[in-house]
Structures are given as C-alpha cells and as structure tokens.
Hints:
The chain has 106 residues and is mainly beta.
Amino acid sequence: MRCSAETTLTPDEMRRLEALPCATDFGLQAPYACDLEEHGPETRHSTLAQMQHYEPGGLVYWWLLWDDAGHQEVRLWPGCDRLVVDETCLLIKDHPGVCDQEIGWP
C-alpha cells in the first residue's frame, strides 16, 4: 500500500524548479504525494519533483523530501536504476520497499 503523505512546494522551491535549464515539462503539481510504500517515521517521504534532460541521454533528478515534523527540502539525488518490466523505476535511489509496475516514465 502506498504512503498517504502529501505536501506542496513553497513559492521559492517552485521558482527554483521552474528556472532549471533543460527542465522537462514535468508539470509541477500540487499537492505532491509520497511515492513510497507505507513506511516508518525514520524514512522521509519522497517524490520526484523535476527532471533535467541533457544530451546525450543524461537525466538529473530533483527530489522533494519531507518528514512529518514539517522539514522539507528539494535536492539532487540519483534515481533508482532497477527495471520494472521494461521501464526504469522512478523512485529515489536506495528507496525502501519494492519497485512496482505503476512507477515508470510519465
């Protein structure tokens, strides 16, 4: 079962992600839902907030991470490199739980 936590970007975080060069048209959204399976408080909530595409074939991932105490950050971190069927998992690298077929390229 997927975690039910949600958060929104601050206006500064939104401007920062919108201004990134080579950013994908990822559609910055509100609210952001945690992409992880249900987890304990020792694991921060995580969702992919933006991607930057660089030729040839390079992607940079910007993650929105937050906890239940209200601490939140947007940071660079690699994505999971495991395959789900024939697509790359779009969860953060070293995420808890399993990759599933609902996580893949948008």
